Amino acid sequence: MKNQIVRTILLAGIIVSVGSLAPTLAQSTAGGVAVPPNYDTFQPPVAGGTYVDPVFGSTIQRVSNAPGTPDAANGGDLTWIENEYSTMSAFNSDNSKFILVHQSYFGLYDGSSGFYMHALPFEINASSEPRWSRRDNATLYYHSGNELKSYNVLTGGIGVVHIFSEYSSISGNGEMDISLDGDHFVYVGDNEFVFVYQISTDQKFKVFDAGSQPFDSVYITPENNVILSWYPAGSARYTGQELFDINMNFLRQVGHADGHKDVTSDVNGDESLIWTNSNDPNPIANCNNGIVKIRLADASQTCLLQLDWSLAVHISAPDGNGTVFVDTEAPSNPEPGSSAWVPYTNEVLQVKLDGSGTTRWAHHRSRPVNSYNWEPKLSTSRDGTRLLYASNYDLSNIDGYNTQYADTYVIAIANSSSTSTAPPTVSSVQCSPPILTTDSASTCTVTLSAAAPSGGSTVALASNSALLSAPSSVMVAAGAVSAGFTATAGQIASNQSASVTATLNGSSQSASIALTAPPATVSSLKCSVSSLVSSASTTCTVTLSAATPSGGSTVALASNSALLSAPSSVTVAAGTISAGFTATAGQIASNQSAIVTATLNGSSQSASIALTAPPATASSLKCGAGSLASGASTTCSVTLSAAAPSGGSTVAVASNSALLSAPSSVTVLAGAVSAAFTVTAGKVAFNQSARVTATLNGSSQFASIELTAPPVHPIPVAPSRPIQSKP
Prior knowledge:
- The protein is mainly β and 727 residues long.
- It is built from one helix and 57 strands.
- 42% of the residues are buried.
């Protein structure tokens, strides 16, 4: 096993010590070229030891010793130990713990001494993107496959927060951190579907499908918006850096190109993107290869620092303390004192967000002997009082270390002159959801500009509406930067807006919450008549449960019968509760029922209307024989204009002659259109006409029948004999 070798630092007047993290008190704000002495021979102290940067006066502590640390996963010793990346904090909120990557897994370190404690479970690796909770200093969130999990560094307990079963895997694409309120993550499902997830409500917001468009990274902003960085540069959609809201609705492009960056809140509460514009095809004037602040609300840009084109950077932003940290990297590996050693070469910088100045903390002394591990990837704590960076100190050339070698160093700057000692102020108040209905609640988070001091900070709370209740105050625990509270809506009669305001140390921030009255529903539907005949109409009135809002309410209408027509909708005017419409019957052939229904906001009411067919009439009367002799009969059939209704139709029958008998009525059975009856002739003495009549519903039909008398036969008379005279 290769143990750490203790060496003397080859710099006159530099004190080397071993102990706890001590805040550095000296640094430089001067510009120009700064040349580090003994650049090719300097050797760092042992792990836990410190030295003072000979140029800038900062105290730097070595945290790790990779060659002397066993590789818990693979055996042997480690080659490198580094912080994961610049944009996520390796420290928890009170700086009592931090984590570093031990090649394939993470190690846990004590925040006070910087000493290594133990390895984390191997499931927690760089691909799983562990992120410290902002509300619990012992909890790390990470993902495995399609699961979001939690790990307690004190108990070792592992829990499943949510399973995204719709995906095979989720990822933050390597650069995202937990949100400022400690309650949201942005993830990418199956390398395509971008969404925000809220921990406290277990809510997955709407998804953006990136399809085949190639993109690099996703960031969640202080106000829980999302920045999606596309690989192509330009000004068109799906190029540069685009801002989306929490539901992944596109808002605006905020940068023409991707690049190293981080997000934070400015001192005035504006959410800001701090970005290197080295790839910008259209940079702002006098800011080539610049560190640029982008105000996300309107994409306006401010140049904070311009660097030589030979320098690359990483950027790390604390929680709204008015500064951002930058490490510069010279891939060409220039020698100090040469013309290639330009201002800010291989330095650790703190840049003010108002553009008023840059503080130079240290030379990181790392050399480009490999493709990535040599880069410091500086990372700040959330309160901006700790800086972690990786460096190889050129030990592959000085001592023959592996070219992939790197260890981690820390600068504590809590009491430096560049760090504000002003009491924390309220930087933001955010409530989710921002829209409440009667008796519903919103989870609100108040975030401070810096960590709360010993004893915590009591933030006063106030609501401007009796319909929105909130506690009178909320306590931000010592070392934390945020705390949550609940705002609850009362009985809302009409739509209105309310706000809750958080106040601390003379500063205030507010969050607006829309109070939405329950939507109006259909309480009744009535029609002026309940029965219609063909072509008749009725006026119907729909009544709502409450007055309609501005713009009115459109109530959907529908009839279940083609024989009853109604409009497709009716509008209830703003401020009113009812509206009328007309329903009209068509040509009704048979009695039936129809229903008209009014629907609004998921509620419905109906009215039933009887559709009544015209009454059947007698349309014809025919008899089988047109004439009858005495005692003869014939069958007559009466036919109606429509089928007889239920119960049948009784047709009155009458004869106008006593010699032609007929029944007084005949019944046409229900559903039938005709019925037969018999008429019979009496003793007809002489030929004559008779008429039988069928009558129904005021209509009559008749049939004539000839009554025929029997023929008259003559009585034979004997022929007369002539009378003969007597002779």
